[in-house]
Amino acid sequence: MNFIDFTSKTFEQLSKQELYKILQLRAEVFVVEQNCPYQDLDELDFDSIHVCGYLDEELVAYSRLIKPGSKYSGASIGRVITKKIIRSSGAGKALMNKSINECREQWKEESIFISAQERLKKFYQALGFIINSEPYLEDGIPHIEMKLT
Prior knowledge:
CATH superfamily: Gcn5-related N-acetyltransferase (GNAT)
CATH class: Alpha Beta
CATH architecture: 3-Layer(aba) Sandwich
Strand content: 25-35%
CATH topology: Aminopeptidase
Number of domains: 1
Helix content: 25-40%
């Protein structure tokens, strides 16, 4: 696996092409691959930080960082995606580490929350997240709220 180059940008800093690629990847994974029609565009994008991971100039990893108080009392990491071709390469861990570090840099000592697909709880636990809720359905997929302090 080659080196993934990460960038972090506000909504205003994203070019039209970058935004298009982000939305394309989110639809590819969350709607098509997971066969889950849902309303992806929820207006949280406007005030979020967008972490993009590029491999040879192709967007292969992405997450959205939501400021404290918008969705949870603390910061939140969501829309975590790695393209199918790079899964099991460590790219997901690299993306989450970049996302956690960016949250800490932006919002200092705030707790970080995620709404994780339940099947990925061990992945997030290995990063230090703890389960913070009972399982619940989100868009027909079992999820759990997790928290990193």
